[in-house]
Please model this.
Amino acid sequence: MFDWNDLKIFLAAYREGSIGRAAEALGMSGSTVSRRLSALEEAVGQTLFVRTPEGLLPTDAGQQARSAAEDTERSATLVETLLGAEDAPRGTVRLSASTELLHMIIIPAWPEFSRRYPEISVAMVESTNVVDLERWEADLAVRTVRPKASDSLVITTLRETRVGLFAARSLLRERGIDADDGEALAAVAAGAWAEWPWVDWSEDRVHLSLARLRQHLYPEARVVLRATSLESMRLACAAGVGLLLLPSFYGRVTRGLVRLPASGLPGPRPLYMVGHRATRRTARVAAVWDHLVDLLRGEDDRDLVRVQTSLAAAYGIDYGIDYDG
Model:
């Protein structure tokens, strides 16, 4: 027989793809995770992972074990809920969100949460991929993609998000344009933004919605810098490298960015919070859920001005907000 707690370690290793990341997610040492995985493999008489320099590759046995382990995880969570084992705000909550949302909005506002709930540990899963909550890859997720209808999930809309075209004040000034002169900006917009330098996604990310939108609206754009993350592109835009299509609430909290007049941009898109129905009301999950709803829910991207204080406090930088429109 094996220790049932080792299934948690197995699932973390499977989901994270490496001993190091699994250890970080679990709050354990890498040696402990490695030792417990080896003990589990010895107990079941199967090799569950192939260890490679790039990380862990699940074997056929590991792939088959994942489904059974997730069933056990779901059952254990449900039993804890039904028996009231989660009636106090303690334990781990896995939160999935994009790196940009975590860095610019969520993490700066987290000290307040940590002080209020010192016994809750939040494992932040940074990913642009849509995690499968029904496979318990996370407890909560903030995303722009609405999950398919499911009896096992609970979903709420946080806000409507928009895409904007942004440039740094320094880039506009370099070209002799006053960023506060709406008529001057409109005159340039009537010409062709495509003639300006641009920042865009790397070639392997052209399938993403913002990359496809730029290609559709400005197919002749002169791209001078490409990157694999929205954060790198946002920082490049703020440094004055080029124009960028960006979710407007990221531009809203980035010092020195100005929203430019542009036609053809899509309408608002919902931002969702998603969780498991079975655990939504447990104390630990409810605490994280309520904190994020309070932080992120709003009617307009401009109401995120309140994150300016938390950004300055968290990073020691004066994030003055320059935002038009």
Q: What stands out?
A: Residues 319-325 have pLDDT under 50 and may be disordered. The first strand starts at residue 49 and ends at 52.
